[in-house]
Amino acid sequence: MSTDLTPLWDAPATAEFWPQDYQRTLLAQVDSTMAEARRMAPQASGSTWIMAQEQKAATGRRGRPWSQPKGNFAATLLLRVNDDPAQAALRSFSMAVALRQTLAMSVPPEQLSLKWPNDVLLAGGKVAGILLEAIGQGGRVDWVSIGVGVNLVAAPPLDQVEDGAFRPVAVADYGTPPSPQDFLFWLASHFGHQERLFKEFGFGPIRRLWLHDAARLGETITARLPNEEITGRFETVDENGYLVLTTAKGARAIAAADVYF
Ligand SMILES: O=C(O)CCCC[C@@H]1SC[C@@H]2NC(=O)N[C@@H]21
């Protein structure tokens, strides 16, 4: 199913400073790093980053296909947790914050913003997406898989993006893209820090960091749910990670939706 390339990128610098909490695997080709994480979870001894140079069947949110031009970043963090599902899901905000910090090393930071629930925008276009899956039993989550796709060298063509979706952009359009290996090193370091904050202090500091860089905070946005569309002023993201909009009929806290502005 996949070829493990890990020894090829164990360069001394990254080997020495790699965050000790995480193992890592680099695959030349795989169907999807999310699927690989599902396969690995039963035997995994600890949290593991799984990166792939090529994915044959990558998926985005809501089962949409995810296009990965060569040289772009694709990885899944199989993260060991022991949380209830609501707590586990908040890791998408930690990853969004870590992604922003990592991207800010390559593009002008003021061009980056975070779109609820878990996209990173660069100059208003989508540069990175996050996909979360929980693995567990009996109301507890044992593992959370956090998939990350970043357009480093190329954005997928517009015709491969669904109607109404945000214009895809690449790091290369605004700066010098790092190699996927270097990107992983820094992302893992930044995420490791966010995860330590989360374990020590809970969602509070992550929420504040996320809100600091939120796109369109205080402005009118539209949340599209399966059966309704809600337009209102983007007030905040609450302590559950819900989007809070003030509408003509009062405040609404929204757990899951696609957001447009
Ligand atoms: O829809 C989104 O915005 C989320 C995109 C997530 C894509 C990444 S690429 C690595 C991982 N493997 C997948 O199949 N999907 C995620």
Give structural notes.
- It catalyses: biotin + L-lysyl-[protein] + ATP = N(6)-biotinyl-L-lysyl-[protein] + AMP + diphosphate + H(+).
- Residues 9-199 form the BPL/LPL catalytic domain.
- This is biotin--[biotin carboxyl-carrier protein] ligase.
- This protein is an alpha+beta fold.
- The chain has two domains: 2-212, BirA Bifunctional Protein, domain 2, CATH 3.30.930; 220-260, SH3 type barrels, CATH 2.30.30.100.
- It has six helices and twelve strands.
- Strands 1-2-3-7-6-5-4 form a seven-stranded mixed beta sheet, sandwiched between helices. A five-stranded antiparallel beta sheet has the order 11-10-9-8-12, with no helix packed on it.
- Helix 4 packs across helix 5 (180-201) and helix 4 crosses helix 6 (204-212).
- The chain is globular.
- The protein starts with 11 loop residues before the first helix and ends with a strand.
- The model has no long low-confidence stretch (mean pLDDT 93).
- It binds biotin (BTN).
- Biotin (BTN) binds at residues 32-34, 55, 58-61, 64, 66, 74-76, 119, 129-131, 147-149.
How would you sum up this structure in a few lines?
One of its GO terms (cellular component) is cytoplasm. By secondary structure, the protein is of the alpha+beta class.
Task: Map the helices and strands.
Layout: H1 12-17, E1 23-30, H2 33-40, E2 48-55, E3 73-83, H3 85-89, H4 91-103, E4 112-115, E5 119-122, E6 125-137, E7 140-150, H5 180-201, H6 204-212, E8 220-224, E9 229-237, E10 243-247, E11 250-254, E12 258-260
Parallel strand pairs: 1-2
Antiparallel strand pairs: 2-3, 3-7, 4-5, 5-6, 6-7, 8-9, 8-12, 9-10, 10-11
Bound molecules: biotin (BTN).
